[in-house]
Structures are given as C-alpha cells and as structure tokens.
Amino acid sequence: MKIAVLPGDGIGTEIVAEAIKVLQSLDLRFEMETALVGGAAYDAHGHPLPEATLKLAMQSDAVLFGAVGDWKYDSLDRPLRPEQAILGLRKNMGLFANFRPAICYQELVNASSLKPELIAGLDILIIRELTGDIYFGQPRGRRVAPDGAFAGAEEAFDTMRYTRPEIERIARVAFEAARKRHKRVTSVDKANVLETFQFWKDIVTEVHKDYPDVALDHMYVDNAAMQLVKEPKRFDVVVTGNMFGDILSDEASMLTGSIGMLPSASLNASRQGLYEPSHGSAPDIAGKGIANPLATILSAAMMLRFSLDQEEAALRIEQAVKKVLAQGLRTADIYSDGTQHVSTKEMGDAVVKALAA
Ligand code: IPM
Ligand code: MG
Asked: Which CATH class is domain 104-261?
C-alpha cells in the first residue's frame, strides 16, 4: 500500500502530520513518501505541481493531501498558482468522482448556525463531478468581444461543457452509492437555463432506468441551495456538476457546524484516490497549532476504505473520532462552553489513544 503524502501549504502540514500519526498507530504497513505541492512547491521548484510530485502521486495507490493556497500567490500567472496543483492532480489522475459527506455529529449539533432540530442526525453525501464542466472546458480566455452589445470591448469567457460518458459515469457512481445508503438521489442542475444541464438531466434520467430501486429527483441549483438550509435532512445523495458541487459542498459543510470536520475523497475509475479535508489552507491560522485535524484524519479513514481496501481500519478511525468528541475534546473551531479546548496535536494524540483503547 503506497501512499503519496502531499501536505501543501498553510495548515496543511500540521493536519497531515496528525493523520499520519493515526495511520502509523494502526497495525498495518504502509509505504509513505512525502512531496511538495502548491505554494510550497512553487517556492522550492518554481511550479505548484512539479513533475516529480505528479509522478509520485500517479504511482501511488492513494494520495493524502493537506491543502494548498495562500494570498501571497494571488498575483502569479494562473498556471503557477497553488490551486493549479489540485486541479492538475484531479485532471491527470482522472479523479472524476468527488465524495463530500456532510455528517452532523450529535456532539456538535450546537456548533452549527442552524437550529439543532434541523440538523440533528444529518447525513448527506454530495457527489461532485470533478474533471469536467466550466472548470476545464475549452476554449477560455480573454479577447476582444466579437459580437453582442459590447462588440469590440475587452471580454473574458469560460466554456461550460459535458460529454455523455462523463455524465453517465458520475450518475452511476451516485446511484451505486445511494444503494448503500437510503436509496435516494437528488440530481442538481440548471436545466431551465443551461443547455449543458438540460443534457445532464436527460442523461441522469436515462441512467436511472438501470437503478429502479433508487428514487431520483431533480432540483435546480438555486432551489437546492435554499433547500439545503431549509430542510437539509430531505437529502440523501446529491449528484451534481463540478461548479455547482463546489458551491453546494461548502454550503453543506456549514450545516454540520464546522468545515474542520469534513473529509473528502476523489476517485478515478481504478479506485486510485486523492483524500483531502474539505477545508482549505487557512493561512491566517497556520503555524498556531489550533487547526482541527479531524477532517484530515477522517479523510485518511476514507482512503483506507476506498483505495486500500481496509474497511475495518477505516471504521476504527471513525469510531475513535466519535470517541474523542464524546470525551468533550474540541479544537477552537468546534469549541463551546463546557468542553475541553485542545490543540491540533492534542487532538491527534487523543485519536491515537482512543484507537489503542
Ligand atoms: C475545492 C476547492 C478547489 C475547487 C479550489 C482550491 C481549486 O474550492 O476543492 O472545493 O474549486 O475545486
Ligand atoms: Mg471549494
């Protein structure tokens, strides 16, 4: 089992260190190799995704990823910005299926800005298509507007596009996932306005014929954004395109109290995967030892489950996380009166201890 460890920038290094500690405390053997990515790689090698880092990732069974980005790189040319590293890994490894679960732990029900009764027991799985859509569509760029009311003016444009096979495969991933859960899929689109998403809706409906045991409904993305805060528990599996998924998954994360709790998995057709917390690099709190490592630790659990075929170890980690929450241990982002405030490292240590118990 070979794991490429790419901690990245900001809090990435601190939280990945805790996840590694947890992995190493299991009675499993991994080969782990660390490499630079994002701003850290740009500083050292002049590129956010150096050839050697990409090669290591491609040759591994799984990538454990921290986070990339810092405002100080915002003025670089786009291809050199830290975010290009994660986009490049997704594209080159073909990681088209992004799983972003939003689970509300009973202990954290009061950490959300929503009323506890709305979110108690919440368990949503957002499945975001990750290698297509307006994120990668060509052509894109800047030019002189060739037509329209402002012909001759400077303009910028991106292209939203999806091919049939891209939609079919992500729809299948969603229906298969729903079969292991509550057998409901909500496909989110903007078919009332966009050609791309009418096509999306038509194809998801077609693929659904192969999954008669799963209920399917369709929702426009604006309505989905509203329903997520109005009645979040109506959702089971949500499947959507790359851009809508980016936005809705951040929204869903806040239902659970803290984005610091949410893991994610990005898989390709051969189950090779990249595992990262759903949150970013948080440069404002980097180096302070206050970041929540649980999203990364839970991402390591997803890695064991999806790419390394170690379901039992994955469950053990998830149980250990529940245990430390039940013990009342909290990093700053999930702290509330009457709980015990701990650092990044203390939280990692507590999970290791809970695993051993
Ligand atoms: C995410 C992030 C990325 C995205 C950025 C960092 C490129 O927001 O993983 O959700 O937009 O996909
Ligand atoms: Mg995002």
From this structure: alpha beta
What is the structure's pLDDT at 307?
96
Residue 113, both tokens: 């800005």
- Among residues 250, 255, 313, the alpha carbon closest in space to that of 277 is found at 250
Residue 53 CB neighbour total at 10 angstroms: 24
- The band of 231, judged by pLDDT with boundaries at 50, 70 and 90, is very high
- Give the residue, by CA position, lying nearest to ligand 1 atom 4: 246
Helix (H, G, I), strand (E, B), or coil: what is residue 56? Answer: helix
Residue with tokens 């390709």: 268
Structure tokens at 10: 């900001």
CB-side neighbour CA atoms (13 Å) of 55? 3
- Asked whether the beta carbons of 248 and 240 are under 8 A apart, the reply is yes
246 CA to centre of ligand 2 in angstroms: 4
Same fold, 1-96+268-357 and 104-261: yes
Among 65-69, 78-82, 252-256, the least confident range: 252-256
CATH dotted code for 1-96+268-357: 3.40.718.10
- Extract the tokens encoding 278: 């759903």
Domain boundaries, the chain: 1-96+268-357, 104-261
Pocket test for ligand 1, best of 83, 250, 251 (most atoms within 8 A of CB): 83
353 is catalytic: no
Direct distance between the N- and C-terminal alpha carbons of the chain, in angstroms, rounded to an integer: 25
Long-range contacts of residues 338-346, Cβ cutoff 8 Å, at least 24 apart: 343/289, 343/290, 344/11, 344/14, 344/15, 344/18, 344/289, 344/290, 344/291, 344/292, 344/293, 345/14, 345/18, 345/289
Confidence (pTM):
0.95
What per-residue confidence (pLDDT) applies to 341? 97
